[in-house]
Amino acid sequence: MPTSIPKQELMMSGHAACAGCGAVLAMRYVLKALGEKTVVSVPASCWAVIPGNYPAEVLKVPMVYTPFAATGASISGIREGLDIEGKEDYNVVGFAGDGGTADIGLQALSAAMERGHNVFYIMYDNEAYMNTGIQRSGSTPFGAWTTTTPIGKDRTFKKEKKKVVADIMMAQGVPYVATASVAFPEDLIRKVKNAKEIKGPKFIQILSPCPPGWYHNSEDTIKVSRLAVETRVFPLYEYMNGKFNLYKTNKFVPVEEYLKIQGRFAHLKEDEIKEIQNFVNERWEILLKKEGN
Amino acid sequence: MKAQNVTREIMTGNEAVATGVKLARVKFISAYPITPQTAIVEKLAEMVSNNKINARFIEVESEHSAMASTMTSEMTGIRSFTASSSHGVLYMHEMLHWVAGSRLPVLMAVVNRAIGPPWNIWADQTDSITQRDTGWMQVYCESNQEAMDSILLGYKVAENKNVMLPIMSMQDAFTLSHTSEPVIIRDESDAYDYIGDLNLPFSIDLKNPLGYGSLMPPDGPFMELKKDMRDSMYRAIEVVKEETKKFNEKFNADFPGLIENFMMEDADYALITMGSMSSTGKYTVRKLREKGMKVGLIRILFYRPFPAEEILKSIKGLKGLGVLDRSITFGQRGAVYEDVVTSLYNKTDIPIKNYVIGLGGRDIRVKDYEKMYEGLMEGEDSMEWINVGGK
Lengths: 293, 391
Fold this sequence. Notes:
Order of helices and strands of chain A: HEEHEHHEHEHEHHEEHH
Strand content of chain A: 5-15%
Helix content of chain B: 25-40%
CATH architecture of the largest domain in chain B: 3-Layer(aba) Sandwich
Oligomer: heterodimer
Number of strands of chain B: 16
Distance between the termini of chain A: 37 Å
Distance between the termini of chain B: 52 Å
CATH topology of chain A: Rossmann fold
CATH class of chain A: Alpha Beta
CATH superfamily of the largest domain in chain B: Thiamin diphosphate (ThDP)-binding fold, Pyr/PP domains
Mean pLDDT of chain A: 97
Number of strands of chain A: 8
Strand order of the largest sheet of chain B: 3-2-4-5-7-6-13
CATH class of the largest domain in chain B: Alpha Beta
Shape of chain B: globular
Radius of gyration of chain B: 21 Å
Number of domains of chain B: 2
Low-confidence stretches of chain B: none
Helix content of chain A: 25-40%
Order of helices and strands of chain B: EHEHEHEHHEHEHEEHEHEEHEEHEHEHE
Number of helices of chain B: 13
Largest sheet of chain B: 7 strands, mixed
Number of domains of chain A: 1
Largest sheet of chain A: 8 strands, mixed
Structural class of chain A: alpha/beta
Shape of chain A: globular
Low-confidence stretches of chain A: none
């Protein structure tokens, strides 16, 4: 069956990412959707090392590396500079991890979106600081093991719920907000293209599994991504022109299906899994209501 | 000499900086408000709003973002500007390194203000002195005229292909920033003729996609790049000299350049100063000269690159030298003092005293200067705090 995925490759082979890296697929699909008239800005993150050591580059578009907190401001400056030069048709993309987005970069992100620059901000969400070796971020979900939320005697796995930056962006009134998954590349590319139609700030959060950080087999990245959507742990939605659309899963899949293939959740007890199921159910109801409004 | 149409206006230091930015045909301005710098960007926002400058202005949510967006705008090949003070300068510290390391000839105006706690909004150079190792050139102004001229000259030096380093131009809080004095407005077409357009050799280009700041391992040219920054900084000394000469010829101006020597020809004792405090120093020199004391003053304009050779030439024949630090370094002597002493190491026998003065806007009086000059005659090389603790 032919797919709608563009054939053009703007990401070359030979990158330095781990096998099964979701963040690599996220970049590849985003660039396929945007084409070559694109400038990418990355903060400190896995994507700052994935291209490999100087002078290697893995993208066929310019790539600006910045300090951790700078993505929002970086894309603002690139956008304004290009516009002054009359290059308004170039896409300017911030491509940051969840630490660089939900935590240290949130202020710059929120401000860039508020100022209304014509930019894309892609959050590749691998749910922890993976480049520094799996430390909790604001985007790490309840129940997850990380090196700073170790299990130990006191079972100090992450006790706080995931901060969903896409929800914050919607609350802030960003003109285009979506969540996407590397297991649904056609949907991901469609969303990036929809976003492109809007002149203004665009925010897309892409769940990007991390085999060494989530302790799942590297060949299971797509499976894990798909289960995240099917179990409603990571609902896919699109918010555009004031309208909210939620992708409805066909059948009920318990969260356990998603959790059990990842080592980061291996320590969870039955009541804790039930708690996660309750969180997921509650959030799903909230999103359904949001769609109804 | 051909007659020039000279336009003079009474303006504050902040207005002089904004006028300099206009003359330099800056196209992008990004800033965050902080006292006492705010009036610079207010003035620029007003100019943009009234089409008096062909630039875009954005007010961002922090100084870190101000410097980050100024950096990336410059990367696209657009001459960019920001301004800050005090804690704002400290907040962008990380980005200052990044801009210099990216070899982007950005200019930032800094209104020197104290660092808390306790809160203090008055003149003190600790904010910019502590940025001395970021790879930025630094020029300290004594007058509103210099505050304006250093913008044009600053971009010209920074964008020189042998330099390609950012520059910050300093003026003291309130003494200059909010005080009006006559300023000669440089002719706009002469200014454009002098500075031209930015021609960045590595601007963001889709036809030649590059990585800007990618990962470099220990055996990559990381250390070589840092050495090149240092070499370029030293090369900037000659560039400042050349460009100052050109600037003065073009505008019939008298910008001093790296340093200014005041009544140094036959001086026995001299003080080294930076910024607006130099004016009171010069007044005191004249006063003491009337009494027959052979004193002089060396004013440092460019603190980075440090004008070691020029200072060495200036101190020939002195019996005593004092260095004033309007900033605080804990656990060691003042920053300017250390640089002077390092520059003169093994090249002079004269005693060099260090004076800490004027922190947090503390008044620097004629009697303080008199005391400092008298102190030099004791032949010591001690460190002394002036006008502190009621003394």
